[in-house]
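Example is below:
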Amino acid sequence: MTLILNRTDVMSVLEMNDCMNVVENAFGELANGTAVLPLRINISPPDGLSLYMPAYLKNMGALACKVVTIYKNNPAKYNMPTTIGKVLLQDPATGDVICIMDGGYLTAVRTGAASGVATKYLARKDSNQIAGIFGSGVQARMQLWAVTEARDISKAIVYDISDEATNKFISEMSEKLNIEIDKANTPDDVLQADIICTATSSATPIFNGSLVKEGTHINGIGSHTPNARELDTEIVKRSKFIGDSYEACFKEAGDIIIPVNSGEISESHFYAELGEIITGKKEGRTDDNEITVFKSNGLAIQDVATAKLIYDKALAAGIGVDIEI
């Protein structure tokens, strides 16, 4: 039998704190060599892009593949979302697909969870810190949620080019997280924050890195192609730069690829993978004046760990539909 979990099922059992725990373990497995993480497979049919993201976490007993498609004409032609995702979870002992679940909410939460874990290890440990969020979409919401799980956040500041989207973000997230959220009038207003998350669709830098104060931690998650970046060369040069994966950063992250290609920094400026910080192979923050940057590209180990968590919690809650395939 195969358990089918729709988006509502997934949302009913997936909490950020639980997701951060399993994502942290997944990055630890990657650093310790007990994770299998093949390269993402891309196929380009005439009207879209199809991505296949498999991974295996030995210690967690988690084996799965996420299938994501991006079809820009879907909303107009078929009244469907541009991006659609499903996760196929397997039993490592038999190889059988034991669960098929919606991957949209899973992906959003696991992306936030990675930033939450990075914040846990890299941000200063002061109380009553301010979070700054660039963007006001789904992922911006997840970033703020995760940061509030990792640190004592007294207030958040959000900036987006859309006032309507910003106001909606403030209304929803202030109620969900029970914190004060202010609207920034300019990008510079966000730079007073202690922890900054960039979750935009911008292909060019969204703030002046020379204005970022010492001791700031930044999670960069929006840009994900070699020619696009949210972070300018100045802030990358000023920071201790940590990525989810060295390989992914130098294939997909314009934030570091562009300054390396222009000769502003060398590849050695990439300090560590997040898993190396988690496992103690390398030090994270060493003083309160250091600026740290975590660049997230999104790895299949995050999906697999989260899918296993969802499946286990769904079984315990007795939700979903079993079908014979």
